[in-house]
Here is the input.
Amino acid sequence: MARIEKKKDVVIVGLGWTGAIAGIELAEEGLEIVALERGRDQNTVPEFKYPNQIDELTYGVRLKNMQHPSQQTVTIRRNDSETALPYRSMGSFLPANGVGGAGVHWNGLLWRPQPEEIQLRSYVKEKWGESIIPEGMNLMDYPVTYDELEPFFTRFDLVAGISGKAGNLNGKIQEGGNPFEGWRSQDYPMPPMPRTYDSTKFEAACKAMGYHPFPAPGGIASTAYVNPYGMQMAPCNFCGFCERFGCYQYSKSSPQTAILDALRRKPNFTYRTHAEVLRVESSPDGKTATGVTYFDAVKQEEVFQPADLVILSAYQLNNVHLLLVSGIGKPYDPATNEGVTGKNYAYQMNGGVNMFFKDANFNPFIGHGSNGICIDDFSVNQNDFGKLGFIGGAYWRSGTFNGQPIRSMILPTDTPTWGAAWKKSIKEWYGHTMSIGTHGSHMSYRANHLDLDPTYKDPHGRPLMRMTFNWQENDLKMNQYMKRKAGEVGHAMKPDMMRLGFKDVGAQYDVRPYQTTHNTGGHIMSDSPLEGVVNRYCQAWDKHNVFVMGAGNFVQNTQYNPTGMVGALAFWTIHAIRTLYLRNPRALV
Amino acid sequence: MSDSLPPSRRSFLIASGAGMALSSLPFYAHSKEAPVSLDQYEPGYFTADEWRFVMAATARLIPSEGDGPGALETHVPVFIDRQLAGEYGSAKDWYMAGPHDPTASPDRGWQTPLNPAQLYRKAIPAFNAWCQLRWSKDFTELSTEQQDQALTALQKGEAELNPELSVFFSTLLSNTKEGYFADPMHGGNYGMQAWSYIGFPGARASYMEWVDQHNVKYPLGPVSIKGERA
Here is the structure.
């Protein structure tokens, strides 16, 4: 029988970005809070300290900062005629493990979606009519507007500590910023980062072609910084170890640098590590949750943690899995388009141009995860969907982010993969290539969804979650458009050689190469319980004392890295709990 | 470690001159000691036959000929042996529960029931058997040209092995490159020779003063996690 812990006001499942935000904001209300984290505790020192963390093999390749599939994974199939097979070793996406979650190993890119992306169905309907929406695409509006979210985007910018240059301050376009972004009520808390050589070449080419370059927005400190919780960041030294690594010098925005030490000082907040939540428990009438059952990996026993309020803040895939195994929301059925849990799983559609310059020195190891110059000239609110034949867009970026040689050895297309010619080529080209990445939107479709696997089980006997996912024509057409346009910029830069990496129409999802850890949807926000798992306050329609955080709330994925939206939605949700829910717990919609 | 602070601008000016001369020298941290002979290394995982195969195969994947070190100079076989003896070899972090479908297309990921250590153990004799059919010799007895042909056939799937072994070539090649480029504390990249060869500074990881040195080749040689310099 499960051990029973003392009841708490709030239990938080997963201590990454959104769990940490929930913890520190709700602690202000004087509530008794416990957070349960599946992985280890981890801090800048000792876990991420120099030089131990500067180890490409251990963290970049063997993925020791990540979730281990032996503990939790999914099965994957491209369509319902394939048998789903386990994602046994990780490739395409890399959920994290441990305190800080994926906020530890991300690149730091911190964007806001464009207002048009948040009301995308309405925007499409108004400009081109619903007839351009392809069959099978579940195109939706978020049930919240950009204007409503703006204060919470700003709050997250300040807490996370980000560097950049505003392009739209209260509706006024700012020289040097992104002219196509949504309005900001204030500029970035820190000025933009200095520029590397590759990004200045890209910037010059873009300007010459009439585009609008601006510095990439990133949770990377360009100056010393103190955030609203009193947490401090130090300026980044371009060490080149962001993605897949914890930051050794307090420069990359993370729960560790922005929240956790301040949170640990709250006497009414505690957290337990090695505590993997297995399910949310329901009251007999099913209308509320009574708490969660977790596995205490130290004592090797199940524990019931009673609580009045349950915050699910695990990684998107793990949140959806918990909802499915706990019976929260009706599972989605793509055949009828009915049901909600697992609906609208989406991803990201990216491409890249590599350019080879024999005589240039790019020093690719000098960089960071949010380095470089961007353009938004081919973004969602700049594309004529009716004319182009797709719905979506992409931002582009050029800037060195790591020169780690096991994974970042870019060679011309015709280079053999081994032997004397390979060895010659790595000397010839390492340090002499630069790239432009296009980072594109991904719509939601009936065909792409999440449910429970009929065959494979996790170590606790729970079914693994099954992902049914493949690339769809709409997004592939968008990608091909980016290939053409980014290729033009590449040619204009006159490289000695160029290599284009863009998925073509008909491409099948390949689980092996890393793409992004931007898995979205599955517990989407909605105006009605028939359409999604949670309402506009990310509160479960089924159980009013369950709130669900993270990118699982996305109705479809935007063209940007999701963390900005994830953080803003977390502050928005906690604000609703603090101002609307606590004084009178009920369904808020 | 004394070298962890970013160099000042003044030291940049000195180093950019001095660095040219230094970078032409081979890994001087180790230049006074003879490399540990691979013949004397006692494998922790591989049998003697497997060890000979891995020595021969990696020597073709990254050959010693031409500019730059090969797999043997950088002790890649030591790296692979140590990896297979450890958590990677036993797929400790991976989901290995069945049922398995090793005939699944490669883009479905690792679907063989074998972990990497078992894969090497089964694939090496299977590949040798293929070499025997073709040339009546084991891989290690072939000429280097024949070895290259055999590896090419293995890569292209022409040297057909049991589906459970179909990921062998890609695994061997990945592990070889990992051993070439990983920090030397993992057993390969001996003397940081691969880093020196391509110009990767290893664990220096501090470049604030170099960001605006546009189109200037970074002149300092690598350091390792344990503080060795080359």
Remarks:
- Chain A touches chain B through 65 residues (CB under 8 Å).
- Residues 261 and 559 of chain A are 33 Å apart (CA to CA).
- Residues 473-492 of chain A form the longest helix (20 residues).
